[in-house]
């Protein structure tokens, strides 16, 4: 679908601008060709997967675009750049966690480690030249909508020099990630600890656990990945895990690969085959992705499929924990399987039953030299790892929209919500990736993110085409969408009695899940409901919403571009002659004279 950008065609596009009739009055719409659209500056915040999608898709789809993508980090990758804890890996098959238009046939494993994923992101961003738009080491502190100019003022700090600066744009896109903020857990005495204290979200790669006594706090997605990595090296691991969790069998979702036990490595012969025959890889991708997309009943509570799946996980856990059944009792949840994010965690259950691991299903306190269990016993340790996840959902910096409304305060004090997950109230010309209720519970994440990007592209192009100053979602549309989300999620497993970061602390509302599958979201975003938005015209429209119709021409006519003038003659494979079986043999189609 997307080829690396052809610079020549960009230059050709630029040449067209010569045909603005009045150089002194370039925005006189009556003198413009109808397709000489409004120039537009877009700022994207974040260079993770979402920012990369913007950096690849936007310049290919949007003309007259000035694009800048800022990130506070020193390089791109977001989650996959930042997360460095031992065992960091994706928890869906990588074959279904890559861009639609760039297949990596050589994933070393079903769940490759973080650095391999980050290297992939970097290679794609380089190949498709998204990097050209990216500026690193620049942190956004706040953004303010200017109602007069119809632009965002974006306040930035250059982290290297400490200098602050303001950039402005017509459209602001948030790609700052849902899981980019973390806090120390609330554990008494935690910071009195004199040994090494580290959080999974902010790992210190100099840490070596070899021969050390380690306390690992938390058994969510990251704790599950960390334990099997540190257990063989550490002399002792005290694994504090207050919550319960489901661990699915490794082969779950991996039916298409011939996995052996815990070994999720891609077999050599498959790697060779995929390399030599990319078509066979696409077929393989289809299989993996369709595995992920199907099985939809699992997301509803008390369905046959949810029960079968739960039983499968329970049996798996029972057999792996046979040596220490007391762990099973403590770990086995009473909530439905997919209520929390499922992490396959190859090797986690096996590590739990090793002699040097003590599973402690309770909270703890910390003193200078170690940890204190609930019974008051002190245990000396050298290292404490808190794998307690990320800060809850929220807007990471103040964002002042219409009438000075601060989205950060709105989301902190009330409930984070956004129309179709990407357009929050009172924030004109602003869209967010992975916004509230903007993550797929079922199906593949990347095409889903790409579809969010395409929706934004449609909105930006509409602003350009029709010379609009602003587009902003109607309040009642935000509320109606929110009500729909609540109703949809009510009977799903996400609404089980589990503790998750994506439940609102105040009213318990579910904040992460899109109300449907990934494919469902892609369908729903394909055609924006323009009637749900309010618009303002740009001054150039002179008060008439139709002035953008311009001088009666398209640019191809003005430059004598033959192909452009006859674009409708492009090969269209969708039209093929049909034989009407009812007429077969009766009246032959008339010959077309050549
Ligand atoms: C440990 C971990 C494992 C995961 N595993 C999976 C998985 O297996 N499958 C899956 O589908 N999803 C997974 N996820 C979710 C994952 O975050 C998303 O799939 C995806 O990577 C999100 O990309 P993003 O670009 O939206 O956000 P991020 O990758 O979080 O990137 C956000 C970027 O914004 C930048 N930023 C934030 N605030 C500012 C600011 N104020 N100014 C400038 N820049 C800023 C950050 O520096 C960062 O680079 C995982 C998440 C984590 C944390
Ligand atoms: C909006 O922009 C105008 C014109 O540049 C400027 O005079 C005004 O101070 C700005 N308003 C705000 C709130 O920044």
Automatic annotation (TrEMBL):
Superkingdom, natural source: Eukaryota
The keyword Ion transport appears for this protein: no
Q: Which GO terms describe its molecular function?
A: flavin adenine dinucleotide binding; N,N-dimethylaniline monooxygenase activity; NADP binding
| Cofactors named for this entry | FAD
Transmembrane annotation, as ranges: 40-58
**InterPro entries xrefs:** FAD-bind_Monooxygenase_sf, FAD/NAD-bd_sf, Flavin_mOase-like
Q: Which UniProt keywords apply?
A: FAD, Flavoprotein, Membrane, Oxidoreductase, Transmembrane, Transmembrane helix
Q: Which family does it belong to?
A: Belongs to the FAD-binding monooxygenase family.
Protein name, entry field:
FAD/NAD(P)-binding domain-containing protein
Q: Which organism is it from?
A: Penicillium arizonense
């Amino acid at each position: 679908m997307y080829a690396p950008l052809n610079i020549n065609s960009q230059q050709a596009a630029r040449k067209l601008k010569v045909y603005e009739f009045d150089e002194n009055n370039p925005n006189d719409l009556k003198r413009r060709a109808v397709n000489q659209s409004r120039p537009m500056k877009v700022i994207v915040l974040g260079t993770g997967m979402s920012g990369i999608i913007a950096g690849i898709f936007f310049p290919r789809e949007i003309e007259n675009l000035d694009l800048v993508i800022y990130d506070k980090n020193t390089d791109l990758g977001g989650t996959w750049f930042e997360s460095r804890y031992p065992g960091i890996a994706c928890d869906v098959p990588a074959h279904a966690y890559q861009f639609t238009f760039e297949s990596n046939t050589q994933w070393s494993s079903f769940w490759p480690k973080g650095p391999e994923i980050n290297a992939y992101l970097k290679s794609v961003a380089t190949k498709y030249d998204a990097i050209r738009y990216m500026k690193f080491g620049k942190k956004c502190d706040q953004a303010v909508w200017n109602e007069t100019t119809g632009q965002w003022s974006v306040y930035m700090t250059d982290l290297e020099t400490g200098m602050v600066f303001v950039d402005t744009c017509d459209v602001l896109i948030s790609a700052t990630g849902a899981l980019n903020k973390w806090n120390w857990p609330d554990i008494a005495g935690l910071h009195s600890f004199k040994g090494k204290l580290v959080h999974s979200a902010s790992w210190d790669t100099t840490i070596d656990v070899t021969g050390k006594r380690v306390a690992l706090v938390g058994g969510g997605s990251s704790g599950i990945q960390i334990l099997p990595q540190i257990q063989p090296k550490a002399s002792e691991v005290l694994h504090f895990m207050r919550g319960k969790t489901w661990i699915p069998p490794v082969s779950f979702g991996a039916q298409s690969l011939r996995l052996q036990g815990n070994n999720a490595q891609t077999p050599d012969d498959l790697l060779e085959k995929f390399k030599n025959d990319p078509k066979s890889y696409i077929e393989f991708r289809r299989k993996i992705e369709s595995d992920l997309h199907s099985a939809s009943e699992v997301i509803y509570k008390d369905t046959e499929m949810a029960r079968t799946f739960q039983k499968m996980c329970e049996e798996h856990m029972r057999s792996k924990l046979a040596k220490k059944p007391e762990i099973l009792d403590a770990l086995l949840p009473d909530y439905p399987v997919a209520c929390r994010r499922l992490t396959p965690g190859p090797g986690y259950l096996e590590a739990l039953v090793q002699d040097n691991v003590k599973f402690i299903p309770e909270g703890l306190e910390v003193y200078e030299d170690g940890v204190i269990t609930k019974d008051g016993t002190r245990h000396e340790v050298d290292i404490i790892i808190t794998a307690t996840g990320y800060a809850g959902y929220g807007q990471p910096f103040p964002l002042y929209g219409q009438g000075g409304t601060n989205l950060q305060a709105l989301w902190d004090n009330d409930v984070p919500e956004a129309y179709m997950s990407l357009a929050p109230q009172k924030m004109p010309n602003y869209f967010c990736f992975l916004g509230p209720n903007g993550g797929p519970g079922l199906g593949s994440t990347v095409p889903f993110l790409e579809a969010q990007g395409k929706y934004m592209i449609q909105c930006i192009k509409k602003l350009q085409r029709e010379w609009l100053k602003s587009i902003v979602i109607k309040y009642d549309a935000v509320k109606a969408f929110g009500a729909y989300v609540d109703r949809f999620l009510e009977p799903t497993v996400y609404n089980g009695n589990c503790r998750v970061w994506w439940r609102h602390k105040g009213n318990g509302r579910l904040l992460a899940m899109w109300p449907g599958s990934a494919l469902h979201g892609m369908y729903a975003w394909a055609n924006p409901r323009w009637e749900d938005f309010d618009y303002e015209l740009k001054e150039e429209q002179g008060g008439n919403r139709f002035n953008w119709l311009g001088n009666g021409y398209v640019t191809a006519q003005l430059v004598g571009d033959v192909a452009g003038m006859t674009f409708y003659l492009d090969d269209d494979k969708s039209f093929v002659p049909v034989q009407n079986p009812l007429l077969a043999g009766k009246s032959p189609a008339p010959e077309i004279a050549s």
